Amino acid sequence: MSEITHGLRSVLSYSRIYDFFQWIMGAKHGRAIFSSEYIKARDRDYVLDIGCGTAEIRLFLPDVEYFGFDPNAHYIEAAEKRLRESHKTGALLHATLDEAALVELPKFDIVLVSGVLHHLSDDEAIQLAKLVKSALKEGGRLITIDPCLVAGQSFIARYLVSHDRGEHVRDVEGYQGLMSSVFSSVACDVRHDLARFPYTHLMMECML
Predict the structure, then answer these.
(1) Among 41, 119, 171, 179, which is 20 to 30 Å from 126 by CA?
(2) Domains (range + CATH), the chain
(3) What is the pLDDT of residues 143-153, one digit of tens each?
(4) Of 62, 66, 89, 77, nearest to 19 (Cα)?
(5) Using the 8-state DSSP alphabet, how is residue 68 labeled?
């Protein structure tokens, strides 16, 4: 996974600073929309969150069976605290999800990959998509969200997206092409209204 972790952007590896930056971005508003309009989870759905960060999305989900994975120990520690304080249920693991870990997990109705693909090379993204495919139930869905480059976006949005910590920010066709190599159906939606200031997100719903 390719990520810029030096200079000012290195502080985002710490959970409190990451959450503060997310607050500045207006992430609660964006996550509420992401949950209600794209994830659309139902009670008792099994939800796998790959790269769960501090698990704030769990606050916007109904009574689901939630499993969160993240390789950042600071994020997992903050996520555990968040779930305790909010009385939300969930299983959290400080790890990178792999095939061995999937053997111990149930099949999932929804797999979330939020802000992850733009950190991955093409080969890594395809490998992750194949892993997700094996984790889904029949009729299950992969839901992703990432910064995106699009024609006509504002200068500020393009600058911010281009200077993200992830080194593989793509255009719509770039993201869609990767997922289409694994999934038979890939629906894309571009939004410019999920943050407090100009920013561009791409949501994808991928199905078997």
Answers:
(1) 41
(2) 7-207 (3.40.50.150)
(3) 999 999 999 99
(4) 77
(5) E
